[in-house]
Amino acid sequence: MNRRHLLTGIAALGLASSANAASAGFGLRLSNEGLIMPVIVKGRPLTGILDCGASASLMDSSVAASLGLTIDRERKGNAIYKSIRTAQSAPVLIAAGDTAYTAPLMIMPLKQAGLTSDMIVGRDILDGHRLDLDGPALRATFQTRQPPLGNMTALALNRSANGTLAIDMEIDGVPVRASVDTGSNTPLILKADWAQRNGLLTGRKISQWLGGDVTGLHQVTMSSVGRATFGGLTFHDIPVEISDNRLTYDVNLGLDFFLRLRSFWDIDAGRLWISTTPDHLARPFDRERSGLAYLPQGDGLNVIFVAPQSPAEAGGWRKGDLITAIDGTPIAQMAAIDDWKRDPSRQTVRLTVASGETRTLTLQDYY
């Protein structure tokens, strides 16, 4: 399921260079938690989520304890859906990708919220570091001084009072300032009152799904919009989450856009440069097509939510059903358990449940 894990409200904390800068940096791995990057803290290799939407870097409390990090004080902030409290460590040296920075870490039980990564690399790494992020190549580097490509478009990168980064864009022709957020796997998150006020849900298919942050899972409304435009680029048919969230701006622009872009981040200069290719611009956005949300349980997948108006609801699926195999392959033998749900070319899937029954589920877009 799409998950959003990161803090948004913790308080304070020339175009002629080589086009190969990002490819000479470090590799990223894409998972359902986001962009995973290598991190080293106190000599220990860790996994981190690259997230410019997080106001500070966070570490799982069990990892912090094993590293012997000392706690300075308690902090308050907002996740996407709820207020939270975290502990703050003394400043620590963090080697991230191909650079290093020193910052206090916000410490909380991230793994209890469903994360497997050890920490979140927040936007504090961008203070004093420029980022060249090649989304399609899954490469990045902080060791760069200028935007990499002469054909990149420069956007104003605004910064709110609490440090949230934002750009100006349009959604279905409606101008809006949107936070930019590589930590969100949902392409667009809209505040419900703003979406309703601007008529963005009129005539659209609507369903429900589960969104998540460091406070756990929350039921949200899912729909789509026709187009999103920024930097002279227009993307079409974009899945959106509509919720009463605690985000700073009415719209949150997520990771799926940056996977289609070469982007260069310079928050000190207040600029975000972007470019893409026609193929990446036209690539369809993934969306969930089954209506089944589940979590691992033993050697199976326990259904925890069935989306209204979805193929799963029409097929009689219920919360508590246990999936043991997909197209005849046992869950325990599968490396990827979600890819089938978002494959637009797939029409059906065979799901075996704990009783031994195999059910055929017809897949389709339902929001």
Which key terms come to mind for this protein?
single chain; ten-stranded mixed sheet; 7% helix; mainly beta; disordered N terminus; globular
Low-confidence residue ranges: 1-18
Helicity, as a percent range: under 10%
Could you describe the largest sheet, including whether it forms a barrel? 10 strands, mixed
Radius of gyration: 20 Å
Shape from CA axes?
A: globular
Number of strands: 30
On the 0 to 100 scale, the average pLDDT is 90
Instruction: Tell me the span between the first and last alpha carbons.
Output: 15 Å
Q: Beta-strand level of the residues, as a percent range?
A: 35-45%
* Number of separate helices: 5
Class from helix and strand fractions: mainly beta
Model description:
- The chain has 367 residues and is mainly β.
- The chain has helices at 61-67, 192-197, 255-258, 278-282, 311-314; strands spanning 26-27, 29-31, 34-41, 44-50, 58-60, 71-78, 83-89, 92-96, 99-103, 106-108, 119-121, 131-134, 139-141, 153-156, 158-159, 165-171, 174-180, 188-191, 207-213, 216-230, 233-243, 251-253, 262-266, 271-275, 292-297, 300-306, 322-326, 329-330, 348-353, 358-362.
- The strands form four sheets. Strands 2, 3, 4, 5, 6, 7, 8, 9, 10 and 11 form a ten-stranded mixed beta sheet that branches. A six-stranded antiparallel beta sheet has the order 1-13-12-23-24-14, with no helix packed on it.
- Strand 12 (131-134) and strand 13 (139-141) form a beta hairpin.
- The chain is globular and about 55 Å long.
Give the arrangement of secondary structure elements:
Elements: E1 26-27, E2 29-31, E3 34-41, E4 44-50, E5 58-60, H1 61-67, E6 71-78, E7 83-89, E8 92-96, E9 99-103, E10 106-108, E11 119-121, E12 131-134, E13 139-141, E14 153-156, E15 158-159, E16 165-171, E17 174-180, E18 188-191, H2 192-197, E19 207-213, E20 216-230, E21 233-243, E22 251-253, H3 255-258, E23 262-266, E24 271-275, H4 278-282, E25 292-297, E26 300-306, H5 311-314, E27 322-326, E28 329-330, E29 348-353, E30 358-362
Parallel strand pairs: 4-11, 5-10, 17-22, 18-21
Antiparallel strand pairs: 1-13, 2-3, 3-4, 3-8, 5-11, 6-7, 7-10, 8-9, 12-13, 12-23, 14-24, 15-16, 16-17, 16-20, 18-22, 19-20, 20-21, 23-24, 25-26, 26-27, 27-28, 27-29, 29-30
